[in-house]
Write a structure and sequence with these properties.
Elements lengths: L1 H17 L7 H17 L4 H15 L1 H7 L5 H32 L2 H6 L1 H15 L6 H12 L2 H7 L4 H30 L3 H27 L15 H13 L6 H32 L9
Helix pairs in contact: 2-8, 2-10, 2-13, 3-5, 3-9, 4-5, 7-8, 8-10, 9-10, 10-11, 10-12, 10-13, 11-12, 12-13
Length: 296
């Protein structure tokens, strides 16, 4: 019975390992999917938009088998799952290459230039991940910038203006950085042992509160600006308010799961706000040429 039980446990462990040939960083899924959802709900997605989005998702999924092959998931995982990782990497690479090239060939020139931003950032991110630095402060910031920049070629291909597209990418970059910062701050406070470490945590907390206040101020002022494309920046307010509340209340590390769900809810509010604003901007752009007087 013991041997059978041991065999069952080993088989269960292997099946669990096999299910993990996808990125483990759950927050990264949100960092990628929220910009994509924004473009598809707030713009007018075309065939290149769909193809480029599929290519971006395939590139994202290829990250896990790549890390396995380079031993960043442990030597045992590399030894036992290398063949499967190679097959997964090949599939994701072919999908990304095929859909990406097809999307670029069908897309306007401005989209072809715009794709350079996430590509360059992605190359640097892969190099960082191979060295095991993707969980560093710089690595997580670069990951947020890379995933949010996917909105640039997608937005341009979906008929969004350059200002609106850059504003969308900026929103999701800022919200991702705020969410990552509050989680890191909570963990650092739990691990702090000395007075010096506690002082650093308090300084970072004060800095995070200041940044949240600045983001909220910019969001409140955005609708009063003359550039209607920047109205989208107001959508960052829900996440900034949520992070500000967490920074002030200082929840313990035991509340990380609750914090995560709170950030997801705040991001959903931001998604609704940015999509609604994009629709308002599009309606305004369609009506403004017919008005007998200038609005601004």
């Amino acid at each position: 019975m013991d041997c059978l039980a041991a065999g069952a446990i080993c088989k269960e462990d292997m099946s669990t390992a096999q299910r993990k040939m996808v990125p483990r960083e759950h927050g990264a899924y949100a960092e990628l999917l929220f910009p994509i959802a924004t473009v598809f709900l707030g713009g007018w997605p075309t065939t290149p938009t769909w193809l480029l989005a599929i290519g971006a998702i395939a590139c994202f999924l290829a990250n896990e088998p790549l890390l396995v092959l380079f031993g960043q998931r442990g030597t045992r995982m590399k030894r036992e799952e290398s063949d499967r990782a190679k097959r997964a990497l090949l599939v994701f690479f072919l999908v990304a290459l095929g859909t990406g090239l097809a999307g670029l060939l069908l897309a306007p020139t401005v989209v072809q230039y715009g794709i350079a931003v996430p590509l360059l950032l992605g190359v640097v991110l892969v190099m960082l991940a191979i060295q095991g630095l993707e969980r560093s402060v710089f690595g997580e910031a670069l990951a947020a910038a890379t995933l949010s920049s996917v909105a640039i070629p997608l937005g341009l291909s979906a008929g969004l203006g350059l200002t609106e597209t850059l504003a969308v990418a900026l929103i999701w970059l800022v919200t991702s950085l705020l969410g990552t910062s509050i989680v890191r701050l909570t963990v650092a406070r739990a691990k702090a042992k000395t007075d010096e470490e506690l002082k650093r945590v308090r300084f970072k907390r004060a800095l995070l509160i200041l940044v949240c206040l600045v983001v909220i101020a910019v969001g409140v002022a955005a609708p009063y600006g003359s550039r209607i494309g920047l109205w989208v920046l107001a959508a960052a307010i829900p996440v900034a308010v949520a992070v500000l509340a967490m920074a002030v209340l200082r929840p313990t590390a035991r509340r990380l799961r609750l914090m995560g769900w709170s950030l997801v809810a705040a991001n959903l509010c931001s998604l609704i706000a940015v999509v609604t604003t994009l629709k308002i901007i599009q309606d305004f752009d369609a009506v403004e040429p017919t008005l007998p007087f200038p609005m601004f």
